[in-house]
Specification:
Elements (H helix, E strand, L loop, with lengths): L19 H32 L5 H26 L2 H19 L4 H29 L5 H10 L2 H17 L3 H9 L1 H12 L27 H19 L7 H16 L14 H19 L2 H7 L5 H4 L1 H20 L5 H25 L3 H28 L6 H29 L3 H22 L6
Helix pairs in contact: 1-4, 1-5, 1-6, 1-8, 2-3, 2-4, 2-9, 2-17, 3-4, 3-7, 4-17, 5-14, 5-16, 6-14, 9-10, 9-17, 11-15, 11-16, 11-17, 11-18, 14-16, 15-16, 15-18, 17-18
């Protein structure tokens, strides 16, 4: 069994004094990312309306996911070479810088620029946190710490969307971005003491971390992977912008998808795009589930505001229900432990996400009450809470100490790139129709197809 970088007695939990600072610091960063995600998703319809940025709405979400791929690859390579401390600190600084740019923006393009910078930092932060988990906690505690990460969404899901809506209505949407920056200070205050307990050397042969110096054959820098990541990000951005070119748009969109898929191949385990059993399918299904869920989620508040005349405040409560269900289901899978096999959890979770998107589609197409879609999104959150932690556990379980950064990066890249491509595609679909009802229906049809693909591939995560 892999040794932990932190010495703790057998049976110690994630809140044992040996792990406490790392647990609190890591969860604080997850809290920060959760608050930002939920708050920005809530107010983006207001931002788009005020700045006349409907054409850039999808790019404001897909852009950060695209640039996050670059951050993920860089942080994964850096973590494999030097440990996760440096990339984690750098990523938090870049994340905060992006929020400052978006929060002081006066045009939609400036908002998008800030979101691109923010995505770069957020992607790197995600990978660095996964490597912290691999280096610090024994494998038996991985389901618990990933459940804690999901639970870190509870408080922001309770207050984030509602608070963001209130701030946008009573003050300005600018303060939704700038207010999140303030959270960096307490997060870092908790994190810095925790990082002193995380050794920053390279992983040695027995799975612990050697702080005495680098190994004889350190993991090399991989500028080629960074170049492929940048190409994938550019392809996603090009896909988003293709809708503005009526003549060449379809050709540009098709080329962008092909380039993105070619560029991602060196960044993920061999066989990922063909759904090879085991780790490749784990990585692939992570992207498909993310694509279906997040591709639909960003349009759900938009649907409630535009078609059902919800205020931004109450439209955001939809995200709250989904996030609460995500955290609750994650806690359930943690307590069940080995009684619920990871492949089974992934299958159940994938089916729940598909059913939820189908309910959103039915609500849009058949004119059902909005409560149906809102309740359905609680089901979607529960599905993500079951599947996501187990996909993370399986990725680390199938990694060696010198591939923790690469595999964590691959999982995060699949997650982020899947969501980015889905958001780009839904943006094209949304603007292709002439009526609001058809636009929203088209979005939910596309995301339902993606979720169905995840359900079909889910059995292949097991060897």
């Amino acid at each position: 069994m892999r040794e932990s970088a932190v010495s703790a007695p057998a049976g110690a939990g994630i809140l044992h004094r040996h792990y406490l600072l790392v647990t609190v610091g890591a969860c604080a960063l997850v809290f920060l990312a959760a608050f930002e995600s939920l708050a920005v998703t809530t107010v983006m319809p207001v931002v788009s309306r005020e700045l006349g940025g409907a054409g850039l709405y999808a790019l404001a979400f897909a852009g950060p996911l695209a640039t996050g791929v670059i951050g993920m690859v860089g942080a994964g390579n850096w973590s494999d070479r030097r440990g996760p401390v440096g990339p984690l600190l750098a990523s938090v600084a870049v994340f905060a810088l992006g929020l400052l740019v978006a929060g002081t923006a006066g045009t939609m393009w400036a908002v998008v620029a800030g979101r691109l910078v923010q995505g770069l930092g957020g992607g790197a932060m995600t990978v660095a946190l996964y490597v912290v988990v691999a280096r610090v906690y024994p494998a038996v505690l991985h389901p618990r710490i990933f459940a804690a990460f999901s639970a870190a969404w509870v408080i922001p899901s309770l207050v984030g969307p509602f608070a963001a809506g209130l701030v946008a209505q009573l003050a300005s949407w600018h303060w939704v971005f700038l207010g999140v920056v303030v959270l960096v200070i307490p997060a870092l205050a908790m994190l810095l003491p925790a990082l002193r307990g995380v050794r920053s050397g390279n992983a040695n042969g027995n799975g612990s971390v050697d702080a005495s110096g680098p190994p004889a054959a350190p993991v090399p820098w991989a500028p080629g992977r960074l170049a492929w990541a940048a190409l994938a990000a550019l392809a996603v951005l090009g896909l988003n912008l293709s809708s503005g070119l009526p003549a060449a748009g379809p050709l540009l969109a098709g080329a962008a998808v092909v380039i993105a898929l070619l560029a991602v191949r060196p960044l993920v385990p061999r066989g990922t795009l063909t759904a090879r059993r085991g780790l490749p399918s784990v990585i692939l299904i992570r992207g498909l589930v993310a694509a279906g869920f997040f591709g639909a989620e960003v349009y759900l508040p938009y649907l409630l505001v535009e078609r059902y005349a919800f205020s931004p405040t109450f439209a955001g409560l939809t995200l709250t229900g989904g996030a609460l269900a995500w955290a609750a289901a994650s806690g359930v899978q943690s307590r069940l432990g080995g009684r619920l096999g990871s492949p089974v959890a992934v299958r159940i979770g994938s089916v729940m996400v598909l059913l939820a998107i189908a309910l959103a589609l039915a609500t849009t197409a058949l004119g059902w009450p909005p409560a149906v879609a809102i309740a359905g999104w609680v089901l979607a959150g529960g599905g993500m809470g079951l599947a996501y932690p187990r996909l993370s556990v399986m990725t680390l379980a199938l990694s060696t100490p010198d591939t923790e950064g690469f595999n964590s990066s691959a999982m995060s890249i699949s997650d982020s790139l899947g969501g980015a491509l889905a958001l780009a595609a839904t943006g094209i679909v949304f603007t292709a129709f002439t009526t609001t009802a058809a636009s929203f229906a088209g979005v939910f049809v596309l995301t339902a197809v993606i979720a169905a693909a995840a359900v079909a591939i889910a059995p292949r995560v097991a060897h």
